[in-house]
Amino acid sequence: MNGFWVNKKTGLLYEDGNPVKQVIAADMGGEITPQLLVMHYTASGSAEGSIKHLTLKDAVYVSAHLCIDANGSVTQMVPFNRKAYHAGVSNYMGRTNCNDFSIGIEMVNWGFCGAEGAPRTWTGQQLEVTRCMQSKHKNGGPLGWWEKYTGVQVQVCTEVAAALHVAYNLSDIVGHDDISPGRKQDPGPAFPTAEFYASVLAAVETSKAPVEAPTFESGVLATLAEFETRLKRLENA
Ligand SMILES: [Zn+2]
User: Fold this and answer.
1) Cβ contacts of residue 116 below 8 Å, gap of 6+?
2) Which of 16, 68, 70, 106 is found 20 to 30 A from 52 (Cα to Cα)?
3) 4-109+149-236 has which fold?
4) Where do the domains of the chain lie?
């Protein structure tokens, strides 16, 4: 029971010793060294639909490393050491094409829910006012409704980001709206990126305890690196 852990060899995420659920994306690029974490929302209400959209081979070339549902469940779609197509046209402190050096996490959230009347998703679904907050986006636009992220979702994102930071010594955590301002507004004002950043650093501090090696459930992983690690563990047992 050690929370989240990243296997740097395979770029896969583990929770309490087991790999998280995996639905591998069709759209994936070559090897990257992750330096930046980019937070997104899916603009949807279900992880299932979003994961389908992010993993299918179709005309839309999009993917992300992880999807984190409102209930906190985590699905990995691209290994962290491979390029995912989540940021698009982007610029981080003068470096363009952020997909080349970043990890993208998609949080299931409707995002902007209109400025007039009751909160309503872009698909026309009305949301309870209590599920939303009212704010302007820092990059401009009207005072509008934004769906809140759930407590468990933010907590899981924090723990996952801490594990990523431990593994890759990330240089920064940003929102998609920070690297594609004007074009993108996710994760939006309902996601407090600065507070999130502080929580991640705090979580890194408290996660310094030695991490137990992951267990290898049969049939979960079949990469060569995993196999070699498993052999080593058996030899040392
Ligand atoms: Zn985005």
Assistant:
1) none
2) 16
3) Lysozyme-like (3.40.80)
4) 4-109+149-236
